[in-house]
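To illustrate the input format used throughout this study, we show a single complete record. The first block contains the structure-token representation of the backbone; no residue identities are included at this stage. The design step must infer an amino acid for every position from geometry alone.
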């Protein structure tokens, strides 16, 4: 099972879904976010950026980022993960630079961006009424070419609106980067604060301060959040059983999984899966 946002199995993935809290993480893809309902908070490093309906954001590869939702109204967004290989002439830019502010307000966004996002969605599915994940079909060259064209239209309209700065301006503390990277790669294993601290050659006390001071949570809560996000994706986008979902996400027991799940969603995993099935009929 693919790690949370660690790699992308296709050159383009689209998630059109209800926006939720997503813990700090990083990956090798360029991530684009287009808010279709409600609001969304995008955190990059130590900074938090507010997004309203119609706003667009770009998160460059290798930057630690997270999402939060404070709006009590329904919030939805399109999340697009793009392999840098699709970025063409923009490859050097995303390798060396990044936007000083990642969000483009709706009033400044070119109509071509909304059109391209809608076209990408249309290429994958006709029904966007429920939470869905769409993966590009790499076996069809013509599909790849069309997808790449829409992606580069989005870039050509958005990148000139950004004030690009050196990536070092947004480089996170080395300990934070190494911590997120290590957990992203090992969260399905039996890890602990002590074992991670040992692997990173730092003291457990120092690592504990990273979680309390930067992530505003403790190690176990953060680890459970990462695992929960992966388990939920499995329940939403695959036919795997609930048992397979929590085991492949790194939970050692169904009891812990059920407790963490109910704390977040206020229903059981079984009820959640049933609701997903009902919504997609």
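Output of the design step:
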């Amino acid at each position: 099972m693919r790690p949370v946002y660690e790699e992308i199995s296709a050159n383009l993935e689209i998630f059109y879904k209800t926006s939720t809290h997503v813990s700090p993480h990083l990956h090798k893809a360029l991530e684009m976010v287009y808010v279709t309902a409600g609001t969304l908070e995008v955190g990059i490093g130590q900074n938090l950026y507010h997004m309203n309906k119609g706003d667009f954001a770009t998160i460059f590869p290798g930057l630690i980022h997270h999402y939060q939702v404070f709006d009590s109204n329904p919030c939805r967004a399109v999340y697009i993960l793009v392999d840098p290989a699709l970025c063409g002439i923009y490859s050097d830019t995303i390798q060396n630079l990044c936007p000083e502010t990642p969000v483009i307000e709706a009033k400044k966004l070119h109509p071509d961006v909304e059109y391209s996002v809608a076209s990408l969605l249309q290429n994958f599915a006709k029904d966007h009424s429920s939470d869905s994940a769409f993966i590009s079909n790499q076996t069809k060259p013509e599909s790849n070419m069309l997808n790449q064209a829409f992606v580069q239209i989005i870039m050509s309209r958005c990148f000139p609106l950004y004030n690009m700065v050196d990536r070092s301006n947004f480089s996170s503390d080395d300990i934070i980067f190494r911590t997120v990277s290590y957990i992203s790669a090992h969260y399905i294993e039996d890890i602990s604060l002590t074992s991670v601290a040992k692997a990173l050659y730092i003291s457990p006390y120092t690592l504990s301060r990273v979680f309390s001071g930067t992530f505003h949570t403790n190690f176990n809560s953060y680890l459970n959040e990462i695992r929960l996000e992966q388990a939920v994706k499995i329940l939403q986008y695959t036919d795997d059983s609930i048992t397979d979902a929590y085991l492949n996400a790194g939970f050692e027991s169904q009891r812990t999984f059920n407790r963490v799940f109910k704390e977040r969603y206020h229903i059981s995993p079984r009820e959640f899966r049933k609701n997903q099935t009902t919504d997609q009929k």
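Structural context for interpreting the output: Residues 1-9 have pLDDT under 50 and may be disordered. The chain has ten helices and twelve strands.
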